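Data availability excerpt. The first of two example chains:
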Amino acid sequence: MRAFGRALRVDLRRAILAKSFFLAILLFLAWQFLNCTGIMPSTFFWSNSSIVYVLAYALTDGAAFAVLLLPIGAVPYAWSFLQDRESGFETQAVERVGARAYGVAKVVSTGLSAFLAAAVAIVLFIAILYLGGMAEFPHHPLDNSLYYSLATEFGVLPYYLAHIVLAGLGAALAAVFALTVSAFVHNAYVALLSPLLVFYAYQILLGFIPNSRLFSLDSILFGQPLPDAGFSLLWAVVFLLTLMALCGRLFLWRIKKEDGR
């Protein structure tokens, strides 16, 4: 446990202080504005829109660039395993703390850095909307989709947190998945693009299965798979964390195998 803690501190510091972490924040912020291109040109954008509505649009608009959440999520630290291997850092780290501690720390730091980059960018986006004088709620009633009911029943803070958690976990899953791919395919470009490619393939395969909305990444990341917002959020969090754990376990198996254990 002490070895894991030491490895995690080192890896988290490397992840958050890297230039790629700040680049990811800027990319996530630009991504949100790109998703709003369908409504921003309107002269009534600032006067008639609301933060609750615009935030959902910025994070879930499938007609724009919503799926770019996945490759951007891999930017902060998913490439780090390949860098460690090429520089010889992996060999030294495994000798000091062991393959398991190194691998678990790598998975946690990769997922957490992606989550934090997405969360910071969303908070900045919300702050920009507030500074622009945008109202929190629209003049019209909100429906029961995209977690709007959280805002109407409990206020805007739980609503903001729900979207931050979902987008952050989506980015974290993409990052951990890309990290896992990098352990099998030693190519950074393939690893960074793999979450997006597998997402599309997964959605196509899922289309042949009836009543598969609960397992649809498109619905979980960019929609509300269940009518009840609370249960929907809980299911989404459990599902995404489970997929992350499976990817992390596969990554650990791969590096232990290569380590000869």
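And the second chain:
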Amino acid sequence: MKRKNKWRYIFIHGSVLWGLPVALTFILTEKILKEENLTILNVLITVCFFMAGGLLSGNRLYKQCEKNYGRLLEEDHKISDGVRILESEKSWHHENLIFSISDDQIVVVRNDLFWLSEDQLSVNRTNECFQVLMDDFSRLRENKALGSYLEKRKIKLQLFNNEDKIHPIAEKYI
């Protein structure tokens, strides 16, 4: 609906969902505060004014949605290119994650940068950080190319700290 019917989106989200409620609130507030009868002409002028303002608001919202959509498409292409890199080079770095394929064809996903040192390690902090790793991985896995590539593969998630990049502090097969 958003990309195909721009003006419909702007009208509904701007004038109907923003302008009309604001106009009605304004009219009711004015009636209560002034305690005088409103004419139909005053009501129509007020509603038209706020609905026109709603078109501006709807247009701004539409542009914001288009910008977000464009950013998602760009991100989608980067991930699809990353799958090709992973297939050919057996390693791919994206944001804070490093994907690699081990000798036994297991896809290993690990963090690259981390914020824990040895004195900060606790079970709760480790679990919390591992959950962030899993959330980042799950978000990337929603990409069609990466999702289909990983679909029939065994995946090992590994969490490392800053001080030891050889021995994981947590790992899980999924």
